[in-house]
Write the structure tokens for this entry.
Amino acid sequence: MHARRYFMRCVAVLISTFLIGVASRVHANFILKRNHRVLSGGTKINQVTRTGMTPSLCAAFCGISCHTFHSSHTTGVCSTFSDRFYIYDQGLMVTSDPQWVIGYKSPLMDDWALAFRAQTGIRASVYNLWNKESWTHDTGISSTFPKACLDFVNYEPCDRHFRSWILSKWENIKEVRLSLFKSNSEVVYVVFNGTGSTKLSWFTPARIIASPWSPKILEETLTAPSVKGICNPAICRRFFLYGPLETCQSEWFYMMTLDNSYDYCIRNRHWSIAGNLKKSYPMFFYSKTSGKASLARNNVYPYAESADVLAVWVKFA
């Protein structure tokens, strides 16, 4: 009998140790809203009660079908819900309560957490918001934040960019994925090695793990390949995978973002196919082939394609 009790205690310790280990890994995928709990509504998946319940431990019970949880250290209760906290038409009613914490997953693409989302044509700089350390949209998303600005389908009503807290606390990033969307579909993506990077240094050809342009892009001499790119009175081009700056007609690139209302090559009608930048910036362009693209009317490179949405995702270590 004593041996059985000892065995069960050992099993309990092992399970607790395992859950704590899991919790330490999954907690980073959740955003916490402290001093709040779910009052009503939503679809509850499970409820457990454990002494010493913490948000990290509760997060470990939040499986693949779970998107939101709340937990209380005082009562030891952890409840998990299938509803997405940041989508407001799913029925979760929330109330203030100092004994509880709500945790919810960032908008996810599989196990990728959304760090940034930019919308074309809204006349707001992508890079300025990217670098705005004090600004985040997901530390308690306002009910007035447009749902379309978190979506990757039916996003036409979106009128602003989205910046996650992840950019202000860039830690334990294993991989970074930059995606472009057009007509409700992902049309191109590039995966970078994020280990040991900052929110700016990850974007470099040397860190590319996968792209539709590999291995050619790794062999090219690119001009200032970076998130910051080049921005001066003549041009403002970000997320910049670009060849030599020569003449507008001869220049080529793999990807770039036109981030303000003026670009020399458009102003002087060398890139007329780009459209009206003054009314429609930012603009996202990419090569739809395995090689280079251009906005110039020449026979050397295929025309670049435009995209509707730029998104940056991260995968935590």
